[in-house]
Design a protein that fits this description.
CATH architecture of the largest domain in chain A: 3-Layer(aba) Sandwich
Number of domains of chain A: 3
CATH class of the largest domain in chain A: Alpha Beta
Structural class of chain A: alpha/beta
Helix content of chain A: 25-40%
Number of strands of chain A: 21
Strand content of chain A: 5-15%
CATH superfamily of the largest domain in chain A: Thiamin diphosphate (ThDP)-binding fold, Pyr/PP domains
Largest interface: A-B, 131 and 132 residues
Distance between the termini of chain A: 80 Å
Number of helices of chain A: 25
Oligomer: homodimer
Shape of chain A: elongated
Radius of gyration of chain A: 29 Å
């Protein structure tokens, strides 16, 4: 199906090949694109741009929806990238040294899908292109690019700005590998990262954080291409943004290039992009474009998120000399224009393979290591690096997290570990760590594996997604901050889980035990989000041993993200009770009774030890038979067979179950009848940790009294068994 | 207790009053502050600064914790603000025309507490100052400033950067009132907003979004004062940020002033701050300071978040000529320095009252309106503005939301309504709306009440907190975006709820019904967060009538934030069943049965109509007695008496309850035994809305089959009643 139609008047459009100066009055159509000054565009390229735009319009028209305008506006950028600038191999899409392309303004995805089709990606057939916005459940052309599909590096947008941070992560991954493996004369790692952004991406905080960070890191293997069409959904960008973006980018440490006519000037764009490979700084190419160029809605917000309408599509075809009756027209000339790219890609791969072979002879150890890393496997004995036992003294689980993780971080180069400016608090920096920093600053190198993300929680998580997306299994990014601040990072944590990326988030200072920093820091309700989030393990270990278990599960989950949620304050070691292997099942029995139990107590994380103490008190002073269960991870428990779940909880036998956790109870109703929890209608309080616990009734006498009260209430009103009961408590202030 | 101690050598510190040039070699102590060039500092001021720093050090030393370094570094800024620049009245802290001060770097709160004490705020006694980091549950000096306390405008930090956006909101509130009420010669509204920020606030995305927005809005009644100490927790800022902040701020449309010696140059700071009142742009005052100035840890990260240690405190006292044995020293000279401020404040208020009186004579109607607005009450008949009935045709609840809200927005000036660039989709812009824009752009005015926030969801919510915090009840900010993007905004939504601010978030495109934009847009798990968040109503109406109920509840909740969560797609009107008054109770019976029911079906929001249809089918084709319940808001239901809750759910009678909602089921376990829901281990899918519903089994035949299967399973295995069962379904791709 090389050509589905031919343009009318194709012959009359012959233009000189290069450096042809188009004038502004080429057409009298009011909506015609403005072509600024002298541009460089061959006749073939012009036909490609026109065919491309008509194709986009047709594809959106098909089901009456989609985002045509942006994709049409940036066609010339696509030609520059896929035809002239990017180094990639359409028939070897996962070639590790390929340039990576990220479409941060992901709603323009048809742009990418069409170029994947034209350049010869095998899975992107023409039929697939036509599945955009269709009912097909096997479509490779969803409404936004999805990482699962060939040629797509990361899932983007919708949540705008993420792509910028992802691209920064990809660029860091490449810098790190290059610093680790390249040797003079052997650039085994030499890919460049290209990221397309729209007006919106540059307004989003996560994008702005990442831009500032990339400038600091001197990521000159990164080029941001700005589709500057000055239109968003509400109308002109000037409604809400009148900043000087070029000056802002320069202030952030970027090289800035401006392209006056981003719609047509393929030559200038190509030159700017090529030059950006040699910049000492990351490059921002500000391309002035027109959304819905050459249509009746050119430069208008309505061109953004709806099909153009058949009238408008017909007019465009007429303007461009295409037969208005024909749809999905890809002229032979256009196909020919891209036809050499697969073989060109094969040559690039072959050349690189030769480099790799010479490298293997010159540096056999390094080459072996490189090959091993590319496989994505961890060394077999990684689990044995974790201490068998821990100090018996009370230890904060955040400190235990360090004891578990440091030997792993020392030995496993897969770990790229960072913090959002809480290095002294989160225990994630190991002794021999080197900082990931640009060499020019003299404080580290790109070979370093410890990343100071700054106070940029959201970008930290989004950049980590980029690190992990570079190549399957090659890195396990670790982020760290206070648990509460993972609400800042949540959109990116979600994107990691959605993309099946293994990111480990070391979240400390969970629960009200974090203390005097107060309710703004006390994560009462945040766990409810992460326990409901698909493909994410939220693990709250109760002591050092369980912390070992938490890390083991997080590392084993090669296609799942995890949050390891730890305490600020010291917790007693539950030696002989808590088991690292127990964590794998999400929940497990700590203490069993003989005969019929009166009560099952569930303890969680920093409050697990309270459950043990309360149970002991209920046994010794109140003659109750109390079972105890540790429940570090709901998601892992849900994955267990029902038989195991029933064995642990024993709700079928009618024994009441009470959970103890210093969070809102939401979600525990699945496993318990009542909760010693935070009230769901108030936040925490600024008090020293132990006092905060006491204030909300998280001490043994208070819990014992409330649990006994509950058992008595159950006796008096058996119907209470059908209500979930919150056993909350808060002192009156004063 | 005017003076608890006196400094040693006080006499020898007599310095000329003003324009005294201190030299750099004033002390040989290595840790002495650098004093750059010529500074303006009187001897009294110098004593104030020194006493202040010693006091901060003592207060942190008391309980061995807190954040001393930053507070010490910015003492001179405080003197400039509270002594010379700000217009406020310590004995009339809620005077409506006061200047507002926001401490975005809230961990330095002792800075603010001490100035509140020194300037005569009555509740901030010396005993209260000493309660910082204590066990006192009635402390007015929590670890971060809290809005509940006198002199505090907003609760800040911890979550950094929020304060910048809050200050932008305060400045917009002031601009709006000024544009609405001021008349030539009558500046009834003339307050200025001062916001202190640290290095971290300027790295956070929410701060960067707000800065860009404030520049666009030309908020020249806003001054940002940058405590540029170049230190964060990890160490020097240069580890992670080497941007040119002045150039960046200028690029964002700010006036920039630099203060070389922010530690001592009270004169220069005062001058810069005063000048900022006359700038045509918002002003950024970049004050170079030294964290922990003049101590052994000056300029070091350890000065940030821990007490200095007694040795260091003693050295500081020696250096400053204080008695090392004495603690909490506030010399009489220092008290005298501030003693005139209460009466000065009273004069300001009196003067303003006179203006107001003259204004009342000149513009009696406006003055009456102003007085009414300041009361914070809504007009009595607001509820009657809402339509009694709605079109009977299928209507998306987002459109119904517009039908309900537009007449309110037209008539109630309290509503300041904005969108994060989704005006065409969220139905929040009413016919006669005027845009809030700086007059110079020619597209609106500051009297406008519709705000184009740009693609800045997080700042939108944080700015709204500032709007609401300006004065109790004076505004009801409304934000709008797709529900999924409220994950971007979540930290600010939380801060609004925490501060008991009434913000209404109009969140559209909830559920997988939003369709082809795919899993990045489909909010599977987000409701779990908002249903667990204290003081927030998450309301999902099921048709137009319930949408009216949702708005009524959100508007009635004058001290609570709400999310009104609506559908993209058209929903049938459940006329005769759905009731706006039902929403008030969170859940209510739609259809009751006579005799014992076989099943209770709960329907929620966009899936409510499915519950009705499924119930009908189970009745007609399978002879089952099915009750139906509409459940738009868990939080409102939780507030009902248990008797009502049991009446609605009837779980005590053993009738199984199944909930239908296209979200992860987390949280429904409290009210149901099983859920027709999204699987908790996968995200949504990019398909047109109806197809997405079908794909995940949200159609009548599929639900009927699964509910019947569940009832059969219950019969076979009665123990199943103790398990919560997810009745999930997803087609195999292909």
């Amino acid at each position: 199906m090389s050509s589905i139609g031919v343009p009318l008047g194709g012959q009359s459009m012959q233009l000189p090949d290069a450096d042809y100066k188009l004038t502004n009055d080429k057409t009298k159509d009011q909506a015609a694109s403005k072509r600024c000054g002298s541009i460089r565009l061959s006749s073939e390229e012009e036909l490609v741009l026109k065919s491309f735009r008509v194709l986009i319009a047709d594809l959106c028209q098909q089901f009456g929806g989609g985002h045509p305008g942006g994709a049409m506006g940036i066609a010339a950028i696509g030609v520059a990238l896929w035809k002239y600038v990017m180094r990639y191999a359409p028939h070897d899409p996962d070639w590790i040294n390929r340039d990576r392309f990220v479409l941060s303004n992901g709603h323009t995805c048809l742009f990418q899908y069409c170029f994947l089709h034209l350049t010869g990606y095998k899975t992107m057939t023409f039929e697939q292109l036509k599945s955009y916005h269709s009912d097909r459940t096997d479509s490779l052309c969803p409404g936004h690019p999805e990482i699962e599909h060939e040629g797509i590096e990361v899932t983007t947008a919708g949540p705008l700005g993420q792509g910028i941070a992802n691209a920064v992560g990809l660029a860091m991954a490449s810098k790190h590998l290059a610093a680790s493996f390249n040797r003079p004369g052997f650039n085994v790692v030499s890919d460049h990262i290209w990221c397309m952004v729209g007006d919106a991406c540059l307004q989003e905080g996560v994008g702005l954080e990442a831009i500032s960070f990339a400038g600091h890191m001197r990521l000159n293997n990164l080029t941001l291409i700005y589709d500057n069409n000055q239109i968003t959904c509400d109308g002109p960008v000037s409604l809400t943004n009148t900043e000087d973006i070029n000056a802002k980018m320069r202030a952030c440490g970027w090289n800035v290039v401006e392209i006056a006519d981003g719609c047509w000037d393929v030559g200038a764009i190509t030159q700017a992009l090529e030059a950006s490979r040699r910049s000492p700084l990351p490059t921002f190419v500000n391309c002035h474009t027109v959304i819905g160029v050459d249509t009746a809605v050119a430069g208008d917000a309505v061109a953004h998120g709806a099909a153009l309408g058949s009238e408008t599509v017909i007019s465009l075809k007429r303007l461009y000399g295409f037969d208005p009756e024909q749809r999905y027209i890809i002229p032979d000339t256009v196909r020919d224009f891209f036809s050499g790219l697969p073989s060109q890609g094969e040559s690039l791969v072959a050349e690189w393979n030769q480099t790799l072979q010479r490298y293997s002879q010159a540096f056999p150890d390094l080459a072996e290591e490189y090959a091993r890393r590319m496989e994505g496997d961890l060394q077999d004995n990684w689990e044995s690096l974790i201490p068998d036992a821990f100090p018996s003294t009370p230890t904060p689980t955040r400190a235990a997290s360090g004891l578990v993780f440091h030997p792993l971080a020392e030995r496993l180069d897969q770990f790229l570990v960072g913090t959002a400016d809480l290095a002294p608090s989160v225990y994630m920096s190991w002794k021999s760590k080197e900082d990931f920093e640009p060499p020019c600053l003299g404080t580290g190198s790109y070979a370093g594996r410890f990343i100071h993300y700054g106070v940029r929680e959201h970008a930290m998580a989004a950049i980590s997604n980029g690190l992990a997306a570079y190549h399957p299994g090659i890195f396990i990014p670790v982020t760290s901050s206070f648990f509460m601040f993972y609400l800042y990072a949540a959109p990116a944590v979600r994107m990691g889980a959605l993309q099946h990326l293994q990111i480990i988030h070391a979240a400390t200072h969970d629960s009200i035990g974090m203390g005097e920093d107060g309710p703004t820091h006390q994560p009462i309700e945040l766990a409810a989000l992460y326990r409901a989030m698909p493909n994410l393990l939220y693990i709250r270990p109760g002591d050092s041993e369980e912390t070992a278990g938490a890390w083991i599960e997080a590392i084993r989950a090669r296609h799942t993200s995890s949050i390891i949620s730890t305490s600020r304050h010291a917790l007693p070691q539950l030696t002989g009770l808590a088991k690292r292997t127990g964590v794998a099942k999400g929940a497990y029995i700590l203490e069993e009774v003989t005969g019929t139990a009166d009560l099952t107590l569930i303890g969680v994380g920093a409050e697990l030890n309270l459950a043990i103490s309360v149970a002991a008190e209920l046994r010794s002073s109140h003659d109750l038979k109390v079972r105890t269960v540790s429940f570090p991870c709901q998601q892992l428990f849900e994955a267990q067979p029902r038989r195991y779940q029933r064995e642990v909880l024993q709700r079928q036998s009618g024994v009441p179950v009470v959970v103890i956790e210093a969070y809102a109870a939401n979600g525990w109703e699945r496993y318990a009848d009542a909760a010693v929890c935070m009230s769901s209608n108030r936040f925490g309080k600024s008090l020293p940790g132990p006092k905060a616990y006491e204030y909300f009734g998280f001490d043994v006498p208070s819990i014992v009294a409330r649990v006994r009260g509950y058992l008595e209430d159950l006796r008096v009103d058996p119907d209470l068994k059908h209500d979930f009961v919150e056993l909350t408590y808060a002192k009156t202030d004063g």
